[in-house]
Each structure stands twice: as structure tokens, then as C-alpha cells.
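Q: Hi! First time doing this. I have a protein sequence and I read that you can turn it into a structure. Is that right? Here it is:
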Amino acid sequence: MPSAPKDGRNAALYAPLRRRMIENGDWDRIAARLAHELNESGWIDKFKDQSKETARAAEATGGVSVETLMAELWPQAQEEVPSSVRQEIVGVIRKLLEKQIEF
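A: Yes, that's right. Below is the predicted 3D structure, encoded as C-alpha cells:
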């Protein structure tokens, strides 16, 4: 799960919005849509392949923990999320927030 935003104003909004999204099922719907879009784009398969390659290479030097593997691969994996997927999910979240918050 993502961590809460670091700045005070957004952090104050994050917890109650996230809780509400979890309670009404929006969180799970967005997560499922994200997983679907990432799978369709090939991102999941690419991440799995990179993980396997890195783990195999580490076995030769004594192995690697899952935590170490994730710490090494996660930043690159985040950068490689296709912009179309990122834009679509951000749009879904933005629409949801516009319904819940009066601007």
C-alpha cells in the first residue's frame, strides 16, 4: 500500500479519504482496475521477469531476501508504469475525489 503524503495539508485529507474509499469498495475497484491495466500493458510480466533474473543472479552470490529484491527493483518498476495507465488511474481517482470533496 502507498504511504501517506508527506506534506501536512494533503496528509490530513489522505487518511479519511482512504478510509472512506476502503469502506465503500472504491479502493478495491481502483486496485483491480490498476492490476488489469498493468497486466494488459505487459508491465506485470516484465516486472516478474526482472525479479526472476535479479533473484537468479543473487543466488550465485548467496541469495537475496524478498525485501532486498523489492527495495532494488521497486523504484525502477514504478518508473516503468506506462504513462497511459498512470493517466487513466489518476483520472479515475480524480473523478472519485471530485464526487467526495466540494471544491
